[in-house]
């Protein structure tokens, strides 16, 4: 497939332009040009030296990631920034990034993937971010105990979930904002949810969850955000392009 068509298809599917004024990440084609063909795409959560070099080793034409290199732009392309961009340019490997668009996508997104793992029904968008959303909510077919929900996340995400268990003993209504989503504790409590599932916490989250009577499950930033790129990879495979997932868990 032609690179230009590839980028345009992804931008349309992920609604990249709708998040342009909301996201610090420069989403879409972040490094490289539109010329040439694509035969193989490497998928990773983070763009870093390790994943970039692995993508090159696997002979990828594009590295597609959730966390890219440009956040509010580059002031200078030196040192660490240069060490990451230079191999991409030298080997003509393009970098495509989808941050908040991939969080908010209700079918391909990270939150949608976690919702599938938890077998949530009656889903609705959740996690307002300006006019868009960055998560989803749903209802468990059979209520979880707090321990059972944590165990399910541990097993399916290969993680170690930390729980702020300040909500109901039975968890039925669940909100999900993956990665760093504790800023939506208030929204989850106001929506009458029993729990918020996210990746990592902050010091203030403990007291906010406690004071609002909400269960918060911290299942790991990386662990909650592998779903999106993998699901986009499945879509890319349907376009006739080979994909390969570059796993580099951080444990965080």
Automatic annotation (TrEMBL):
Domain of life: Archaea
Residues engaged in binding a divalent metal cation: 66-67, 103, 221, 225
Matching Pfam families: DUF34_NIF3 (PF01784)
MF-aspect GO terms: metal ion binding
Keywords in alphabetical order: Metal-binding
Protein family membership: Belongs to the GTP cyclohydrolase I type 2/NIF3 family.
Protein name: Nif3-like dinuclear metal center hexameric protein
